[in-house]
Design a protein that fits this description.
39% of the residues lie in helices and 16% in strands. With 370 residues, it is of the alpha/beta class.
């Protein structure tokens, strides 16, 4: 395990979208095999169909088990046997949704067995998968109840996380609480330090209402929730600042002065992120036992099967997953073998002994007092 390259598991996502296109385009260049060993969880027949439809020439080796993975080649782990998976470009179907969930479940099971190191997921259509509210939530559910996942949008100049995720606009205000703002900021701070190796992170927290609520005229969430949360985070030693009005914050490039931004809801954070980082953004889910990244774009049904999808975001997702995995290994290394506590009483490492006065000294003091 220590001598092999980083193993990157890749799920094929929605088979009617651009998932296979960006995957295959990424591995048209063999140079990527010098830094990792990819394992695509999918269907050889569907992969071949997409490759032929768009004239992509990618050589992959079909395997049936994670134990058959080999370096220096594109491994495609067959999750369907001889079954047919119908491809209908640009259409949301239950069959495509079932295929997406099937490969994701297989990948999760293999990770629990230690089969690979990091996971990169191609986009899916939530409406095609019953009870599915996104990769982050699904992975947290499958990995354990104690997982607190947070998705961060990453680029070279901007990092954005959300307090609320997959929440309708009409429900955003009531979904925001002081505790939730604090918890998300804590997760973001820890991820910046451990996953991205930012030594002393500075986090900007956005307001919910226009012009920061104008002292309650346009809403009181800033006064009652966000400002108290920022103050408590500061008391914890976290460099959190705000709230900032989102329009002025992004238009003035104030985000350049911070290591990350915590937005209140989806469009407040993602609209400026995608506008400022077209084509190369990455989604990263922190708080999970597994390192998981994804391209910042969706299934893109409108261009599916036309050969127009840009693979840069997917390629960057692979690189980012590897970087985070290595950062975590480096960050955690000093914690694995801590030195034992050194006390005067060598046979007892308890806190009681550490702060107690030796009996001989007590007797000596008593005699002197007499």
């Amino acid at each position: 395990m220590e001598n092999r390259k980083v193993r990157v598991a890749i799920t094929h996502g929605d088979t009617n979208g651009v998932g296979y296109e960006v995957i295959l385009k990424t591995f048209e260049s063999p140079e990527i095999l010098e830094i990792c060993t990819p394992v695509i969880y999918g269907s050889p027949k569907v992969a071949a169909y997409h490759a032929k439809a768009m004239g992509l020439e990618v050589q992959f080796s079909v395997i049936n088990s994670i134990n058959e993975v080999a370096d220096d080649r594109v491994n495609l782990l067959n999750c369907f046997g001889d079954e047919e998976v119908k491809v209908e470009y640009g259409v949301a179907t239950q069959e495509a949704g079932d295929a997406a969930r099937r490969v994701l479940d297989r990948a999760i099971d293999d990770y629990k067995k230690g089969g690979y190191d990091v996971l990169v997921t191609a986009p899916v259509c939530k409406n095609s998968i019953a009870g599915f509210n996104g990769h982050s939530e699904y992975l947290a559910q499958r990995m354990g109840e104690d997982c607190h996942a947070l998705t961060i949008l990453l680029s070279d100049d901007l990092r954005v996380a959300l307090v609320t995720n997959n929440v309708a606009i009409k429900d955003v205000a009531e979904s925001i609480t002081k505790q939730k703002v604090i918890e998300k900021a804590q997760l973001l701070n820890q991820s910046l330090r451990r996953d991205l190796r930012v030594n002393n992170p500075r986090i900007a927290i956005l307001a919910l209402n226009p012009r920061c609520g104008e002292d309650g005229v346009l809403g009181d969430e800033e006064q009652e929730i966000i400002i108290p949360a920022v103050k408590e985070l500061a008391e914890q030693g976290i460099q959190a600042f705000g709230p900032y009005a989102a329009d002025d914050f992004f238009s003035s490039a104030s985000y350049m002065r911070f290591d990350a931004v915590l937005a209140m809801y989806h469009d407040q954070g993602l609209a400026p992120f995608k506008s400022l980082t077209p084509g190369d953004g990455v989604r990263y889910t922190t708080g999970l036992p597994i390192v998981r990244t994804a391209p910042a774009h969706g299934i893109q049904y409108d261009i599916a099967g036309k050969g127009k999808a840009d693979e840069r975001s997917f390629r960057h997702a692979i690189f980012e997953a590897i970087d985070v995995w290595r950062n975590q290994m480096e960050y955690d290394a000093p914690m694995k073998h801590p030195l034992p506590k050194l006390y005067h009483e060598k046979r007892d490492d308890s806190e009681k002994v550490r702060f107690s006065t030796p009996r001989k000294e007590v007797r000596k003091q008593d005699e002197e007092n007499e």
